Amino acid sequence: MKNRAPLSLHIPEPRLRPGDQPDFSHIKVLKAGEVRRPDINVTAKNTTDIAYSLVRVLGEDDKVHGPWDPHVDVETLKRGLRNMVVTRTFDDRMYRAQRQGKTSFYMKCTGEEAIAVSQAAALDPEDMCFPTYRQQGLLISRGYPIVDMMNQIYSNERDPLKGRQLPIMYSSKKHGFFSIAGNLAMHYSQAVGWAMASAYKGDDRICAAWIGDGSTAEGDFHTALTFAAVYRAPVILNVVNNQWAISSYQGIAGGDESTFAARGIGYGIPALRVDGNDFLAIYAVTKWAADRAHANLGPTLIEHFTYRVEGHSTSDDPNRYRPAEEAKAWPFGDPINRLKKHLIALGKWSEAEQAALEKAVDEEVRAAQKEAESHGTLGSGKLPSVRTMFEDVYKEMPWHIRRQRQEMGV
Amino acid sequence: MATMNMIQALNSAMDVMLTKNPDVLIFGEDVGFFGGVFRATDGLQKKHGVQRCFDSPIGEAGIVATAIGMGAYGLRPVIEIQFADYIYPAYDQLVSAAARLRYRSAGDFSAPITLRSPYGGGIFGGQTHSQSPEALFTHVCGLKTVIPSNPYDAKGLLISAIEDDDPVMFFEPKRIYNGPFDGHHDRAVTPWSKHPASDVPDTYYTVPLGKAAIVREGSDLTVLSYGTMVHVSLAAALEAGIDAEIVDLRTLMPVDIETITQSIEKTGRCVIVHEATRTSGYGAELSALVQENCFYHLEAPIERVAGWDTPYPHAFEWQYFPGPGRVADAMRRVMEA
Fold this sequence. Notes:
B: alpha/beta; five-stranded mixed β-sheet; 18% strand; globular
């Protein structure tokens, strides 16, 4: 027997479980404005400090601080606030609709609204997005009719996707929103291909993709970073680190060993880590990354550090694996509340206006829901024609599918 | 018109399409400056420029994924997977994305990609350079699967595949790149230049997808086959003295059911030949189709000749490979039944 200690297998565990008091004291909350803003032609290596830090703009005093101040005009901020409120209200209504049996499934993005909404504001409307199921704020920001989102969720007779997709797996080429897949991470490397195509054609549109902390463990993440770096693809690669992948905390994806932003450095991709609940910081880093892409400097990796306030989906109960009330203890606050307070601090907004906005949005969403439900809900019998089930497998229907349709008698 | 082997014909197809359509581009492992390990893309980078034919990282999943993204943008990428045996890292991208994109987006997005890949055995490639995985793709709705058996078809089918709006798996039987190998491994292979299908136009033409070819008319029995096995089946029929009608399917998905049905109705007997392993192979689908469509015309049980259900063994290449002897035996059994 050699004189060595026996090996032991490390299984990562979150610090807290149900019953424990929420506590995020291990997370260092940097002051807004502390992180430097490098030039866009920076090397990946020279972003290392930022990849391990946190870009924040909105301070505890609700004012903007430091070199990442994106100097956004008030109208853009107000529009962002509204789009976040629409997103949250929409989520609440659709969550309830699922609980009422009107659809099979729903996923909220509560607490993460700023990411999609702010990035939609920072990108050009023509830029292409390869989202996950938690970037519904992109569609809302780009003016996709929320009634059509609901029609999709209800798989009703007006469902743009003809009842083929699980609720929230939207697709809209017109809005630069790629078809969402439940197979996580696959779209991340597809986005790199779209960006390569845009560069190949001498286009000026860039691409953005989103992935969760959990699915960075998929090979597609490595593939995307490799191909993006090799071909200097004009793509913004976002990692939304919301701490939880269903019941697995981010340490199960390797988040305890390093930051997700730091993954980019080894590939030669400049990387930023940003407060994912700070509308202005997200806007600033996205603009910076977009400027890099437009200047043919290639990809940027952005980790959005945030917290998934609700369960993974309507099929999940987070109280079984993490402390209740943990969301309220998140040290970076709520993105809507923070932007609202900033606008108030600027003297451009008031609590009364906020209340009026929330009321107006609530009415708007309810009206859309009423309209969508007039076209049917899942199981109500109002469906797209079942004949359409056989269409779009191929561009032209081959004989064997035609025969199967005949066999079904439609 | 020129005399071309299969590699030259495939090269010509890509050359024609690069010239014709600026949205066509080619990438894959070693396909750029070097021109591919089988030389299929030889000279294309030099002629058309580095952005139109370039090397990719060794990452099949990434090759397919980026092609899907390019397809969604509006390009028509032609990608090479160096050996079909290397395709599995990309299987998820092919099955869950390329094949489903049109359907799941209700026609909003599609993936008009052509995936070329050398496949099949007979080159002493061992189990990682000899596989025939076509049935893994014909089972996936949304993909088309094409396998040519000669230079003329190879060029015309590849052009059709590139112009097709759906993702096409284009498997190239590498054993017949240089000549119509008939399974007699102990004899010299006749070069393509002695074969009429090596007369290939230099210019654009198509061979339609979904259409089989009858490469030999006959009345005794019907052979359903594709790729290298077309030539093996021809040799077997000649050696067994059986008047076989040999159908080269060319496209496996969607398959040409009319040609199959007409031939079986004429001959009443059927032998199915492929290199791939037997169980759940494409022959099982063909056998079921013949049974469903032609049962009352059949005079004998359907026979399948296929690779054994083992991994492809390096040292036992010719015991494994379904050569003309095994095909001829099956033909005799069908005739005697």
